[in-house]
Structures are given as C-alpha cells and as structure tokens.
Amino acid sequence: MTGNAQPDEADAPTWPAETAESYRRAGYWAGRTFGAQLRDLAAAHADRTAVVDADRRMTYAELDRAVDALAAGLRGLGLQRGDTVVLQLPNGADFVVTWFALQRLGVVPVHALPGHRAAEITHLAALSGAVAHIVPDVHARFDYRELAATVRAQVPGVRHVVVAGEPGGRDGAVALGDLPEPGTGPIEDAPSSSDVALLLLSGGTTGVPKLIPRTHDDYAYNALAAARICGLDADSVYLAVLPVAFNFTMSCPGLLGVLAVGGTAVLSGSPDPSTTFPLIERERVTITALNPPLTPVWIEEARRTSHDLSSLQVVQIGSARLADEIAPLVEPALGATLQQVFGMAEGLLNLTLLDDPDELKYTTQGRPISPADEIRVVDTDGHDVPPGEAGELLTRGPYTLRGYYRAPEHNARSFTADGFYRTGDVVRQLPTGHLNVVGRVKDQINRGGEKIAATEVEGHLLAHPGIAAAAVVGTPDERFGERSVAFLVCRDEPVGKVAVARHLRALGVAQYKHPDQVELVDALPLTPVGKIDKNALRERLVSA
C-alpha cells in the first residue's frame, strides 16, 4: 500500500456496496475523515483543553495547528496518501499529534505497541509495506532507535526512521522536530472517509499479529457510539492508562471518543497508581479503563490512598473477562460505576450500561453498542444454539471488519460466506442481549472428554484471599489427553494444591475442574497489550 493508492479488495476486504450504503443512510457512517473531524472540533472548542500529558497541555486549536505543522513535515519527507508507517510511540501528546497528522495526509498508521520488539515489528513492517517507522528515542529504559535500525536493515521498504526525541546520530533517522516544513497554512485533508484509516493488531495470543483494517467511517462510529453510551460530553476527562495504541484505549470510547465530544484526554506514562492517582486528582478525571490484571492493584491502593479520586464516575474494565468475584469490589473501592467491556480490535464492542442492575454489571460483559450489530451464537457445526446456551460468537455490523489485511487463507477460515466474523469467543446471550463470556474456543481444556473453561476456574481461584493473580492452561497428558495447570501469584503465604482444592470444594466447583497441578510464580507473563501470555506459560511447562 504505497504511493497514493488505498488497498484493494484483495488486500483489505470491505463491506458489500449495498450494505455500506445502508449504513450511510442510517447515519452510522458520517462521511468525515479524522483529519476533518479534528478541524471541526478545533473550530467548535478552540480554547478547551484537548490533550494533557506529563509535559504538555494542548487546546483543540493548538492541537490542530500542531497537526498541520507535523503533517507538512511528514509530507516534506515524502509521505503521501496510501503509504503505511509503523507508529510505535508511548502514551503522550506526541502520539496524538502524530496520529492525526498521518490521518490528515491519508497515511495509514500500523498501531504497534511499546512492548513490541524486532520479531513483531519486522513482521508488521513487511506485511503492511511500511515506508517509515516512528519511535521514541528511549522509553522505559529501552532504546527504540536501535530497534528501528534493526527493522530498517531487515525490511528494505522502510525508508525513514522518525524519532520523537533525539535521533542520536543513527543513520537515516530524523527527529520529529527537524522535519522539513514546505509551505504554510492548513493541510487539506487528503483521504476519503471510506479509506482505511489505520491498521490495528489482532489481540490473539497465538502466532504473530494479524492486521485489522479500520476505515474513517467505521472507526469514528465505533468511538462516538461508545462515548454516547458512556455519557461523555465536553466536561468529560478520560485517563489513558493502558497503551493508547491499543484499541480499548483508542476508541472504546477512549481517546477518540472523548475528543469526539469536545472532552479532554489525559495520557499517563504508567498504569501504576503512584502515577495515575495523582493525575486523577489533579485533572479531575471522570472516566478511565483498566484490564483485569491491573484491577486488584488499583483496588488495594485505592483503599489506602490519600489522593482524591472523587471525580471518577466510570471505571471500565475490559481486554479480558473480569472475574465475577472481583467485580463487586470495584465500586466500593474506587467510588465509581463499574462498566464491563467486551470488545475486539476486529470490531464488535459490548458495554454494560451505567444504570444496569448490579447482577448484570458484575456477571456480564455488556451488550452490543449498535442496533445494527448482528449476533449469532453457534455450536461446532455452525448451527445456532438455543437461547442461553454457550456457543461461539459470530458477528457482523457497521464497524466489524470483513477481512484481515493481506490474509486470504485466514479470512477463508475466519468469516462465513455471508460475512459473519468468527470471533473464537465462547459466550452465552441473555434475554436482555447482554453477553456472558465463557472463554475462548481455543482456551478450553479437554481433560478426558470433560471440557474445562479456563476463564471460569480462574475466576474461582481469584476468590481466594491469598491469590492475587491466576492463569489456567492445558498441557499434554498421556492419561487424560490434557491436564490442567494453575499458575498462581500469591499475596503473602503460598497457596498450594491442597489449599486450592479445599477452596474450590467450598465453592462447589466440580472435581474435574480442579487443577491437576499448581505452580507458584512471582508474576504472570503479559503480552504487549497487557493480557496474560498463556503461550509463555505453556512453553514454561514444556521446557521444565
């Protein structure tokens, strides 16, 4: 995808023409690019604060001007509509300015995460045909300039390395602030709203990431629909705790959702309460988003903090299922409404409603945000299951992809003939439309014919007061085919297999679901998006 050309249908499958037109007629797709939207927002909210990070505070007018200046510099470097770049910046104003500058030019960012290294970035750069790699100089004691040099050497198409900071004399690297600035005045928006605006990464934990094409139309609708359900307005202040390049933090409603309504985005360089709690107090944050591993840490710190968290109105928790036993602890500790989030970078987003009864807030993962979201729950043969029974979730709609980027073989497996995306998630749908996430199709353990949902057992384990984190995986076994192994992070005293069995019996958990093996670890490995890395745990068992 280089040189003034958007990807064709073979690269990035899209909605059938009649379906796309129906979404436009219904008003789901507004026909505005992100660059044009920012121009509108700057006119409507010129002096309101748009973005805050550790070093800067920018109004909407200042953000718009900074975006124009950087877009001019990137255009002077040779970037143009249809090019792709790997964008790998941490949370901060530089990410926001750079992202919108790329949008204004019609250049497509690949949302790499700060935790990605050479294996992932070279794959992403080669698959996307990236012509540039945009990085910080040093972040979290890691030198990204060395990483960029490695990627550039391995992927010849990467012609430019742009550094937010000091290039440090690296060959071919240029600082964001040193880009050429040809011409003056605003950059006119280059793309069409139906163009691919960005390439997100698949959130699965198997293999290298796949690329997810999202258009201006569908992604803007995603963010705005979520913002409306969350009750966001110009007085809302969103704190980005997880990486902003992550779909959850970007548009659920995230950065794009709060900006779409004229609110303020505060970007934290760390998810740790020692950094985030002072920001909540100082900026009067109203909404933030966490993942399940981070939630107990925040709960514990909130119980003893001296910081004023009273401005918090909503705490979203998503990216993996929140254990039923942990959910009721969130609101008393943080003083804000819990909103469960079940979404995917591929599209479909589910939110619990702010006025849902506790039973739904604590035990379900929300319901689809759009009336045009289509849901099917099917068995292994693809037949719809009876209401309330568990099955694989299939979906299509105005912001759910119709195919991964440059992945025809995978697309043939992941989509039905009539365009439904096979999510791989096992769910139950309630009469209210809310979804209860049981687990993943590939995250079930088949122990002698008995199917064990790892997510369910993990929730039971987390109800033990001595267990801070838990992950259950399957490993090959001669007798049962698979046996279950629980990796536990304990709070103080070790919680061994006997104590685990006693705890699960007290909860009435079937014997076959009890872990066959318990491993105590200091911490659970995480993927770059903060999910528990079960592949790493399985590899640990193999190498033991």
Automatic annotation (TrEMBL):
InterPro entries: AMP-bd_C, AMP-bd_C_sf, AMP-binding_CS, AMP-dep_synth/lig_dom, ATP-dep_AMP-bd_enzyme. Residues 41-405 form the AMP-dependent synthetase/ligase domain. It comes from the Bacteria. Pfam families: AMP-binding (PF00501), AMP-binding_C (PF13193). Keywords: Ligase. Residues 456-531 form the AMP-binding enzyme C-terminal domain. One of its GO terms (molecular function) is acid-thiol ligase activity. This is 2,3-dihydroxybenzoate-AMP ligase. It comes from Pseudonocardia kunmingensis.
